[in-house]
Amino acid sequence: MIPETLTMVERQILSNQYRILSKIGDPTEDYETKIEILTNGYTEKYYEVFDVNTEEIALEVCEETTQILYMYKRLNETIKSLSEIEKSQLNLDVIKFEGFNARRNPHYHYFGFLVEKTNQWDEYTETYFISADENQLSKYKKMLEYQVYLLDNDQYSFKKEDLAQMINMIANSTNINPFQVAV
Question: Who's near 112: CB < 8 A, 6+ residues apart?
């Protein structure tokens, strides 16, 4: 969000930074106009100075996004360890990762940053997950609650029974048949 007001000190610091940039920065950039806006406090023109497009993403959202990704890393490891028969007995589609809603969810933007810039989540680089479903986050939060329960009980990896429990938990809250075999 572009500020509606700045203190005199903030205006002075920013205008000094633009003075420095005018000497060493992009010669096509109009730093002088930004300096004048800041020096004179033309609040209506602050949008010309601030080119930040989004609000800050809260620490809680960043941490929750990371927790969701780590949870899915553990889930995927467990799923890989199952036999095809065991997989067929579970409706894994119920708990699959489907991304975040891009329009209404700050998790989406942080997720994009993590995938594109940190090289920590290579499993998501080929596909960009944009969910149209706004309920995905509530599903992930329920799954995280169960994961916390397991971690509190010193269980650091998932078992087939844990996947079934998660599927039942999500299916019961969304009226999905937990025993429906994915095709």
Answer: 128
pLDDT, tens only, 101-148: 877 788 888 888 888 888 788 888 776 667 666 788 899 999 999 999
Q: What is the chain's length?
A: 183
Residue 119 in 3-state DSSP?
Answer: coil
> Residue 46 has what DSSP assignment?
H
Helix axis angle for 136-152 and 160-174, nearest 10°, is: 140
What pTM does this model have?
0.71
**Contact between residue 92 and residue 78 where contact means Cβ atoms under 8 Å apart:** no
In degrees, to the nearest 5, what angle opens at C-alpha 137 toward C-alphas 75 and 112? 80
Distance CA 1, CA 133 (A): 26
The one-letter amino acid at 53 = N
Cα angle 84, 124, 103; round to 5: 120
